[in-house]
């Protein structure tokens, strides 16, 4: 679950505790069994370096948005096993010596260093999102929590960004996924990371309080069908404090406007009798929220009842000095209905001289996803805002990102993980990572180098090599160089610590990076793969270590 930041926005100095469920015990048992084996062998203090990265971009695309960093930093800032947790571990690992549990009681993350790409950045496979350095037993205990905090966060932030790209900058995107999310924790995290990925608001009230995300909502079909008629409102609504019954006056205005709309020249014949229980529901909701009245218009019939009823209430509100917010469509042919609704609104503006009514907001929902929004764009629609839930927060198109956490160095000795599947071979040693930009201002390639190699320089030609394919190589003359990894937790080192940004700053970074990328890398269909490379020196070292570590077979 996403952690609340300092205040609503995030960032700040000393991190506060995260979700109480995210404790040092939120890990796999084998992390503790390995820690015991390290301790038993006297290796638990060995200095280790791990990379956290992923191997393939999600959703068939060629980019990913990094999320979850702040929660990782808050986790290690508060990493400490309690006496109760130690007692539980003793019962779960009864064969372990008492000295091991005394060791566990003493550890924290004061000697851990974390270097990471800023949260909200566009990232690519193989490049470390985070480099974690410290005592090997402690770092192993961080593996599962870090992967848990980063995997879903990055996946759903990427999903949100993809929806933003297909919807376009001008449309409002509303996250409506709480009721369909994988539990309350999933719902809270989804709201936070969808906002970071480019959504404008959420229906999730708790997320609004925790993170300062704008919250939006209207009413349901149940609210509409709960009313019986306009008399029901008049009989049940208390007179206002000045003694005049404003409810009855407003109902009268609504009825007059509905009659005028029905008889208007360009609208005559478009509908007959509207559903009066729906009209009563709209009237009641408008009385409760005259400054933000937005009606769900598809409970009975959109064009023969919902839209005319909305217009009557909106025009009555205008007579009383208020302005309605718009309508929501939650079923049917959204492209057709939005176009027809827009025509109706424009006819109202022309008939009654209501300036701006033709631009009244139209929101669409109903199991929307990337594909349906893309289809709506191709059909032509008049939707101003999309409410998206199930497919967004569950990441229906892909279940997991698949981040991994691999040892790349211990006691200054580089380590490599080999596999018959070359995509699973790790890139050894502690590294520095850079993004190289071309003349047009777009990123060209990400390059990893050894820690002690000189940084790429602007204007100097550099050989970039695919880490495993010897034929894939290219020279690059960068016009701008950006070092990707920053120090977010210095431990006992002298590195200055980057402050955690607010959620709005992270969102702005994400939106800025989407604009900076070359469009062909970001398109939905057949995107161009972005190049990730290593320096010539690191390439040679990878293959030297590979040959050194791989056993030589023997033919019988």
How would you characterize this protein structure?
The chain is an alpha/beta fold. It has two domains: 11-162 and 398-549, nicotinate phosphoribosyltransferase; 233-364, no CATH class. The chain is built from 18 helices and 22 strands. It has helices at 29-40, 69-77, 83-92, 98-106, 136-167, 183-196, 205-211, 221-225, 230-236, 246-263, 276-288, 302-319, 334-352, 370-379, 390-393, 503-516, 519-522, 536-549; strands spanning 10-12, 47-53, 64-65, 113-116, 122-123, 130-135, 172-175, 201-202, 294-296, 326-329, 361-364, 385-388, 404-410, 413-414, 431-437, 443-450, 462-465, 473-476, 480-483, 486-489, 500-502, 531-535. α9 (230-236) runs parallel beside α11 (276-288) and α10 (246-263) packs across α12. The longest helix has 32 residues, at 136-167. It is elongated, with a radius of gyration of 29 Å. 44% of the residues are buried. Mean pLDDT is 93; it is low at 3-10 and 239-244. This is Nicotinate phosphoribosyltransferase. Residues 325-424 form the Nicotinate/nicotinamide phosphoribosyltransferase domain. It catalyses: 5-phospho-alpha-D-ribose 1-diphosphate + nicotinate + ATP + H2O = nicotinate beta-D-ribonucleotide + ADP + phosphate + diphosphate. Pfam families: NAPRTase, NAPRTase_C, NAPRTase_N.
Q: What structural class do you assign from the helix and strand content?
A: alpha/beta
CATH architecture verdict of the largest domain: Alpha-Beta Barrel
CATH superfamily of the largest domain: nicotinate phosphoribosyltransferase
Portion in helices: 25-40%
Radius of gyration: 29 Å
Strand content: 15-25%
Q: What fold name stands as the CATH topology of the largest domain?
A: nicotinate phosphoribosyltransferase
Shape: elongated
Beginning-to-end CA distance, first to last residue:
55 Å
Question: Total helix count?
Answer: 18
The number of domains: 2
Task: Going across the biggest sheet, name each strand in turn.
Answer: 14-13-2-6-4-20
Count of beta strands: 22
What top-tier CATH class of the largest domain fits best?
A: Alpha Beta
Low-confidence stretches: 3-10, 239-244
Keywords: Glycosyltransferase, Ligase, Magnesium, Manganese, Metal-binding, Phosphoprotein, Pyridine nucleotide biosynthesis, Transferase
Cofactor: Mn(2+); Mg(2+)
Pfam families: NAPRTase, NAPRTase_C, NAPRTase_N
Domain Nicotinate phosphoribosyltransferase N-terminal: 25-151
